[in-house]
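Is NAP placement plausible here? Inputs below.
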Amino acid sequence: MDATAERQRVALVTGGSRGIGRAVCLALAERGVAVAVNYVHREDAAREVVREIEAKGGKAEAFSGDVSDPVQAEALVERVVERFGRLDILVNNAGITRDTLLLRMKEDDWDAVLNTNLKGAFHCIKAAVRPMMKQRFGRIVNITSVVALMGNPGQANYAAAKAGLIGLTKTAAREFASRQITVNAVAPGLIETDMTASMGEDAIRSLRERIPLGRPGRPEEVAEAVCFLVSDAAGYITGHVLHVDGGMAM
Ligand code: NAP
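Reply from A.M.:
I modeled the complex. Tokens:
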């Protein structure tokens, strides 16, 4: 067992307050990881996640911070390292949608989605690899989407950001491999969260019809994939995109 494995590992999950991020926080805590639960608006939801973890004997704390802002993203990572003394795992999960057809899409819709979903991960990775390089250990997982591989009408901004995340994942995996930092992506399909609850019924129906397993996924099913990629068992996997999509994008 290496020295890092003897200490309690520390994870930062961006957008850990709701949906997939919340499920990732709970699943990591169940495996004994101390969790920094990031949120941008919903402090109440982040605190509830912390309470749930603490009720089961785990360690967690809520951290505000808008990952699309480079100053806030850097400060977020610094505060987590200050509080927990290290950072082993970064899950870039924070994400938004601003769906509309390309011809109607405003520059502001494009920028908001790219800045949060892609640039946010860039800011957090830059800040997080500093402590990870010193530790010579790190696990980074970026939450992309099947939409990055398939495209989706009304989601040009979102698909572009998520496709960019895959390029970012593979490049970071190559750059940091010599420091024993792995960088992987998880590509969920249609998962039941607040994000998909805001989609129209027709859009949901047409997506459901394209799922070979015949049902939407649960946030917990995505969290299991993240937990595997950050585990010791996945130490020889880097630059990979793991689909959790009921077969949608095969
Ligand atoms: P969600 O339920 O809408 O939750 C989004 C989370 O991101 C919230 O915790 C939110 O914080 C946080 N967030 C948003 N903007 C942020 C910012 N600028 N800085 C920090 N945190 C921010 O979404 P979800 O469905 O769980 O999605 C999570 C990730 O999975 C996203 O990257 C999404 O693109 C991806 N994904 C989702 C699906 C799906 O079907 N649901 C499919 C593929 C990929 P607050 O609570 O403070 O607002």
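Short version: Residues 43 and 156 are 30 Å apart (CA to CA).
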